[in-house]
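Thread: "does anyone have the structure for this chain?"

Original post by V.I.:
We have the sequence but no experimental structure in hand. Need at least a predicted one for the grant figures.
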Amino acid sequence: MNPLKNKLFLRIIGIIIFSLILFKLDISKTIDILNQINLKYFIMGLLLFIPHLLIKIYRWEKILNFQGIRIKFKKLISPYVGATGLGIVTPWKVGELTKVSYLRNKNVSLGTASFSVFLDRLLDVCFFFIVGTVGMFFLFSFFKEYLFAISIFLLTIIGTIIFIIYKRHDITKIFLRLLIPTKLKEKMYHTLKELWYEFKKMKGLFIIESLLITALSWLFFYFEVYLFALALNIQLTLWQAIILVSVTSIVNLLPITISGIGTRDATFIFLFTIFGFSSEQAVALSLLILFMWIINALFCMIFWWRKPIKLLNHSS
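Reply from O.Q.:
Generated one for you, tokens below.
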């Protein structure tokens, strides 16, 4: 099967899941819940996206400073927000990679530029895994039948990371031989070497500081979801909102969805059942969050339309 068709089929899985959920749902109840929305809480929630973004821009500035790249905070706002908008509307948030082009336009080498963008995303993923795992242990009685599988999964990830670190030279050679055209091998090898060099420079204090900044940025987003729940008169606790967002973000890493459609709804229903809420409330909140992402994407794309990043082909 054509790789493009494979990707399209994978994306459709999320739509199929969403369709099955709607088929089993009392749609009229979901609509009633949405019709009773408290606009004050909803607007307050939407506004929290701004400090969430600003703190993430500050984190990117800190990463760049760590690399010796001095760019003022205000100059990072437009490229970061614009790239975030592209990330929202693209699978796996690949639109955020346009930040690499922004740095390349500043004469930053490909490996160095890629490191800052990759680490920026990796910090979010690591944070979700930490919070999501802690949350599942707090809900041990509900997750105990899945705990063995979860533990194996986490140990496999840790083992894979350790294996990659120790066998990085062999893996790089295999990667270059099998996947990269001959004329690009030397350039790619240089880029990967540079990327690894940046990772080796990281110290424990820098990692902890970066994770703390990440936690602060996502705390605003957790409050945003908490306020959306209140807007629909769903009495979630803040801790439940934190678990909800973190576990869903991990699930959404699967390449079977567009903007979390289907996977987010299914995860919400599963967790809402544990929390003692209905499936209709879960889907209503999930739809409100989808609407929030649409608004956020439009807001971010204003920055892209006003000052798009030039996507140029640079040589090393």
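V.I.: this helps a lot. The two ends are 35 Å apart (CA to CA).
O.Q.: and The chain is about 80% helix and 0% strand.
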